[in-house]
Design brief:
Shape: elongated
CATH architecture of the largest domain: Orthogonal Bundle
Largest sheet: 3 strands, antiparallel
Structural class: mainly alpha
Helix content: 40-55%
Strand order of the largest sheet: 1-2-3
CATH superfamily of the largest domain: Intergrase catalytic core
Oligomer: single chain
CATH class of the largest domain: Mainly Alpha
CATH topology of the largest domain: hpI Integrase, Chain A
Number of domains: 4
Distance between the termini: 63 Å
Radius of gyration: 34 Å
Number of helices: 20
Strand content: under 5%
Number of strands: 6
């Protein structure tokens, strides 16, 4: 900012060398119309912001369209509309500036404004004609003696819809230019991944896994849209998606992924819907969702007469669980402790593997683990936040494990090898190896996570009150633990149920009877 002789401030800034031609000037000067330094700083900041926005968008305009992201294209479109509006406003012919007879304007004033608007419209048309005339064809016609003869008409190239003069002519003619662009499937997917990365709050490892799953199913849809050609499918505009077309994708998946379960297909289509909805939202398209109604429904076994194959996991049988726990007791201290805690608390793998020392509460009348989000891992949902008392088996295993630890800080992971971003995958694999390789069980529905299903079955067999079950399992829509217990520490009631569950010997035929609890 500079202060003139009369005390008024002016904002001045040199145009970057690479933008001089596109900008048309060497230096920007804006009169701030104030001698007050504080007001000048505020006005100067606004002028500088406008300078930066124009510089950014001019660079976008000279950038190859193929190199622009969808967001950049949208920002460019909105800036061009604003630039065209400002140009018309500066000339005094913006439709909103038209004098209104009812507001006191004379007829002469109204007619004068209309003449001025028509003159501006003619100038815009002339500029566009000069800009888009087919010079090569004109030259050929000139050389052949056809140019400017009777009845001769020039040929014009298609007008760029983002040309400022074209948008200004549209506004001046009474139309409202669309703020939106027509994004492709690729642009919708890219935006969804970018937005999800900043809002989902996953760990880097889990975010990477999520994005890999998204890309796989989006690639499948692109191949379907492009008749087997991935790049062609990704260039499909999402405005062209129809429900009938997407219903065909369901048949396509049945052929290309015959082993997919109903749950897998439905989760995959949920990702497609999320990407489509994000593109629809960002680009303000107001389109109906074409994926509505394509998800599959599972027919219950008692209705179809055929056992459902859609169950992901089952419980351990009593014999399998006894063998599994016995093998765990011969394993390395961390694997042994994690496995036993999962058996006797019903917790998820990541809930135990991601504990910190501060979440292990042993100096209490009722020792317990405090399940809550931390820097190692998130939880599945809000209901997963809970306190789980340790029964005698879990407490003994935990104390034995702590005897092997030399030193630690409160926020250190309880199980350092696995308590890290990406550590849950090798943990699950090590526990799964016990079932597959040591126990020689090939049934893919039996996994380490099955200890959670087993705990649920045990509590059902014991007829444990439902609100106890909800609290221990961390399920939603549960009553709080303190409700209905009477006097005393609620943890004592939960510990009693876990002690009883550890001793139950028959909880149903886990291999044949299963209800997916998650």
């Amino acid at each position: 900012m500079k202060q003139g002789k009369k005390g008024l401030y002016t904002y001045r800034r040199r145009v970057p060398a690479d933008l001089k031609q596109a900008w048309g000037i060497r230096e920007v000067k804006v009169a701030l119309k104030t001698a007050d330094h504080a007001l000048a700083l505020k006005a100067g900041a606004e002028a500088n912001l406008q300078f930066e926005m124009k510089a950014k968008n001019l660079r976008l305009m000279v950038t190859d369209a193929a190199k622009k992201s969808a967001i950049e294209k949208l920002e460019e479109r909105k800036w061009i509309i604003q630039a065209a509006t400002n140009m018309l406003k500066h000339e005094g012919v913006l439709p909103t500036q038209q004098p209104k007879i009812l507001e006191g304007a004379t007829l002469n004033e109204v007619l004068e404004w209309r003449d001025q608007a028509e003159n501006a419209k003619g100038i815009l048309v002339s500029n566009l004609q000069d800009r888009y005339v087919d010079e090569e064809k004109r030259q050929r016609d000139y050389d052949a003696g056809r140019w400017n003869t009777s009845g001769y008409e020039d040929t014009y190239k298609p007008v760029d819809p983002n040309d400022v003069d074209s948008v200004a002519l549209e506004i001046l003619s009474g139309s409202t230019p669309s703020n939106a662009i027509e994004p492709t499937w690729r642009e919708a997917v890219d935006i969804y991944i970018t937005e999800n990365r900043t809002t989902a709050q996953r760990t880097p490892h889990n975010q990477k896994k999520h994005e890999q799953r998204v890309v796989r199913i989006c690639d499948d849809l692109a191949r379907y849209l492009g008749g087997g050609k991935l790049d062609l499918g990704y260039e499909t505009k999402i405005a062209d998606f129809t429900r009938l077309w997407m219903r065909g994708f369901r048949n396509y998946c049945d052929k290309t992924h015959p082993n997919w379960s109903v749950d897998t297909f439905n989760r995959s289509t949920q990702m497609l819907m999320a990407a489509y909805n994000k593109g629809n939202e960002i680009f303000e398209l107001n389109l109906s969702n074409p994926f509505t109604g394509i998800q599959k429904e599972t027919t219950a076994a008692h209705v179809s007469g055929v056992p459902t194959e859609d169950t992901k996991r089952r419980s351990f049988t009593p014999t399998e669980l006894a063998e599994y726990e016995e093998i765990l007791r011969g394993k390395r201290p961390d694997i042994k402790t994690i496995g036993i805690l999962m058996i006797h608390t019903g917790c998820r793998t990541m809930e135990i593997g991601g504990l910190t020392f501060s979440e292990l509460i042993l100096r209490s009348n009722i020792p317990y683990i405090n399940i809550k989000p931390n820097h190692i891992r998130r939880l599945k949902n809000k209901s997963s936040i809970r306190q789980i008392p340790l029964n005698s088996f879990a407490l003994d295993a935990t104390r034995e494990y702590l005897d092997t630890i030399k030193s630690y800080a409160p926020n250190d992971p309880l199980f350092p090898k696995y308590g890290r971003d990406g550590g849950m995958d090798p943990l699950s694999q090590n526990l799964r190896n016990i079932i597959r390789n040591t126990m020689k069980i090939e049934d893919t529905k039996l996994v380490p996570y099955s200890t959670r299903h087993t705990m649920k079955d045990k509590m059902r067999a014991l007829r444990s009150p439902e609100h106890y079950q909800f609290e221990i399992m961390g399920h939603s829509n549960r009553n709080r633990s303190a409700e209905g217990y009477g006097d005393g520490d609620p943890l004592s009631y939960l510990r009693e149920e876990l002690e009883r569950a550890a001793k139950v010997e028959d909880w149903g035929r886990g291999a044949e009877f299963r209800t997916n609890i998650d």
